[in-house]
Specification:
Number of helices: 27
Low-confidence stretches: 1-26, 33-39, 385-399, 532-566, 629-633, 713-717
Structural class: alpha+beta
Helix content: 40-55%
Length: 717
């Protein structure tokens, strides 16, 4: 497949060649010549299919080749008379795609679909015919990779095709396997295209398909795609790297010397292991050159040690670290903690007698197959096992990763093709994944792990867990400690999200903390709503639909009872009055109101920034006034900021002072100390508004606290 792995099922080829025709290309030339010979023979396998069948039988000795033969004959008949831009019969393309997948160990159903993957798109064959002749499973895979017509979708055809493909991949990852192999063969033959079209295809491959190959663990496809894109988009750097690698041809190979010594060490220890020299592909060599500024012969490859059992990996590691000088900083254990794309291996680096450092990978043969072919090496993940019946409805995919679940979730709420396309590229540009464990109660229960991209914050976790109800998130506890919503999470963190029914909703600063498209899109939608400023975010589902009614709608009955009638009344008959969560007004504050959805009037302090924003948008204020002295039985809610010098036990002391005033703490957040100063933010429920001055005095008397003020705006996390 690439300089790193031509055939994952046969690791002995990993270090056999560094230049010259690739083994995979020799196979493609063979089937290309066979396809030019004319129609297939009546008996036995078609000539063009023989090489594919041989490779397939290597991985699956009991494979039924009759279905493959029928699929080839149907594809050859359908594509007969069609030519590729290179002048070759079109059937050479599906054959080449099928060979790529066969070399990676794909099972028969995937190969059948790959032979037919362009028939519905480019011939008269229909999906109904595919289903009738080859079954529903093959039909689903073919439909998943079939492009949408530009006649119907115009400029949105490409992003909508990828959306369709990703949705299909959510139910069957083999759809994306076929697409990746299809793109690899197209990239191999890209030279017949116009330069501008080559660049356009290469950019999409770089931004979308290579990250997808990485996330699905198909390294054999990813590395060759990287080299092909590198050659198209950066031809000068590619030529320089190619020349640099060629300059080492014929020189003594330090990796071969270290590999020979490692074989002897492991043989003396009684460990059955293969030690291979694994050349780097060109992009990898270029990255090493950029990182180190120069190259040595040992930088052109890595050692690959293959063993039988997991325990043998650690035995090999012990022997190598005993007999060689290890580079401790290079050690990583991806066996105990596999990567998000199923990858498992031990990484280390050892120093040879000449001072050359050899990066070393240690894995079992099974790990190697999965490392190279990813989900393709797992065969059909949907096949019933132990005689169990396949589940009805959406199939449970044991290989379906968390990032794919997140992607499928946010794409459903992104109807605009351009926004989807941009968000998809941004999401795929993020590397790595973490898992955090939520301890707050939700529909899926406490202790539920959430998969997030590396570098995600509490904001991302909130939207991943609660969807748009996360607008009501007001804080978080990370590993038991209060944290701001902008806190970056790490793998294994415990997270408790603090939610409020009358939160002011997300602020623009939340966008600075959001890394996932789901969070960014939800926040952007909220901020773009003219009536969103100051409106509570996390209302129960039954009340949220109430707010979506047209302005001026005034249903009668108990549901229209004013929510804050004990404190304020508006000059708008029948309106519900709600105190804004962004500035938490209480008597005797000077206030004003604005009508929002559902006939509700939200009351703000006159100095609240939300008032200026809505006035700038041309929103007309509504007169509001306090009812009596504000001693209604419902009490009031207020947000206070306590500025203090950082010291131990400050939080419990402040909480005790608040409780002594008979005030309930709705939520609390503590920002990380900065230059020995710390800020505590409390949202409090007071039984009577006139108790606010005494409460603030009591908080100021806590040792270390030098000021307590009302929050003028929503506390920015």
């Amino acid at each position: 497949m690439s300089a790193e792995a031509t055939n994952p099922g046969n690791p002995e080829t990993a270090g056999r060649w560094r230049g010259g025709p690739r083994p995979a290309l020799r196979g493609l030339r063979r089937i290309g010549r066979a396809a030019l010979l004319g129609p297939p023979p009546r008996d036995g396998l078609p000539n063009a299919l023989e090489h594919v069948a041989k490779v397939h039988r290597h991985h699956h000795p009991d494979a039924d080749l009759d279905t493959l033969s029928r699929a080839y004959q149907r594809a050859e008949t359908s594509h007969r008379g069609q030519l590729r831009k290179s002048g070759e019969p079109y059937i050479t393309h599906p054959l080449a795609v099928t060979l790529i997948l066969a070399e990676l160990g794909a099972e028969t159903t995937t190969l059948t679909a790959s032979l037919l993957h362009d028939t519905v798109e480019d011939t008269e064959m229909t999906l109904d015919q595919v289903r009738a002749e080859f079954g529903a499973e093959v039909c689903y895979l073919v439909d998943g990779v079939t492009k949408l017509e530009k006649v119907d979708y115009g400029a949105a055809a490409e992003p909508e095709t990828f959306r369709k493909m990703l949705v299909a991949t959510g139910s069957d990852v083999r759809v994306m396997s076929i697409k990746l192999a299809d793109r690899l063969h197209n990239m191999r033959t890209l030279g017949v295209m116009r330069p501008e079209k080559q660049a356009r295809i290469a950019y999409v491959t770089r931004d979308v398909l290579i990250p997808l190959a990485e996330r699905l663990g198909v390294q054999a496809l990813k590395t060759e795609l990287e080299d092909l894109v590198f050659a198209v988009l950066h031809p000068e750097e590619y030529a320089e790297t190619q020349q640099l690698v060629a300059s080492y041809t014929g020189r003594p190979d330090p990796l071969a010397v270290i590999a020979g010594r490692a074989r002897a060490v492991l043989a003396d220890a009684g460990i059955d292991a293969q030690v291979l020299v694994r050349p780097r592909h060109f992009v990898s060599v270029h990255r090493v050159l950029l990182a180190r500024g120069r190259l040595t012969g040992a930088d052109l490859g890595r050692l690959l040690v293959l063993v039988t059992e997991d325990a043998d990996c650690y035995a090999v590691l012990g022997e190598l670290h005993t007999c060689f000088t290890p580079v401790v900083s290079e050690f990583k254990d991806f066996i105990a903690t596999p990567k998000f794309n199923l990858y498992q291996s031990l990484h280390t680096a050892i120093t040879g007698t000449g001072g050359d450092v050899a990066e070393t990978l240690i894995r079992t043969h099974r790990m190697h197959r999965v490392a190279e072919a990813g989900v393709i090496a797992l065969g059909n993940p949907y096949a019933p096992t132990d005689g169990a019946d396949a589940p009805e409805g959406e199939r449970a995919d044991p290989t379906r990763p968390g990032w794919l679940d997140r992607l499928l979730d946010w794409q459903r709420t992104t109807p605009d093709p351009d926004t989807f396309w941009t968000s998809l590229r941004d999401d795929l540009a993020q590397e790595g994944e973490i898992a955090v464990f939520c301890t707050d109660a939700a529909a899926d229960g406490p202790g539920t792990p959430i998969g997030l991209p590396a570098g995600a914050s509490c904001v991302d976790a909130a939207y991943a867990r609660y969807g748009e109800a996360a607008h009501g998130c007001i804080g978080a506890r990370v590993n038991g400690r209060l944290a701001t919503l902008g806190t970056v999470l790490h793998d294994g963190d415990g997270l408790h999200l603090l939610m409020a029914q009358d939160s002011a909703g997300p602020s623009p600063e939340w966008l600075d903390h959001a890394r996932t498209p789901a969070a960014r899109l939800a926040i952007s939608r909220w901020l773009a709503r003219p009536e969103g400023a100051g409106e509570p975010a996390a209302a129960p589902a039954g009340r949220r639909s109430e707010r979506r009614r047209a302005p001026g709608h005034r249903p009668a009955g108990p549901e229209r009872a004013p929510a804050a009638s004990g404190l304020a009344v508006a000059d708008l008959p029948g309106a519900t009055v709600r105190l804004a969560g962004c500035c938490t007004p209480v008597p005797p504050d000077t206030v004003t109101g604005f009508a929002v959805r559902g006939g509700t009037v939200t009351v703000h302090r006159a100095l609240c920034p939300a008032v200026a924003r809505m006035a700038a948008m041309g929103r007309q204020p509504v007169g509001v006034r306090w009812r009596g002295a504000g001693k209604g039985g419902s009490g009031c809610r207020v947000t206070l900021l306590a500025e203090a010098f950082s010291r131990p036990h400050l939080l419990p002391d402040l909480t005790e002072a608040i409780a002594a005033q008979g005030v309930a703490v709705v939520s609390a957040a503590v920002e990380p100390p900065h230059e020995q100063l710390v800020r505590h933010t409390y949202t409090l429920h007071l039984p009577h508004a006139d108790g606010l001055p005494s409460l603030m005095r009591a908080m100021r008397q806590v040792p270390g606290v030098f000021d307590v003020v009302r929050a003028a705006t929503t506390v920015r996390s």
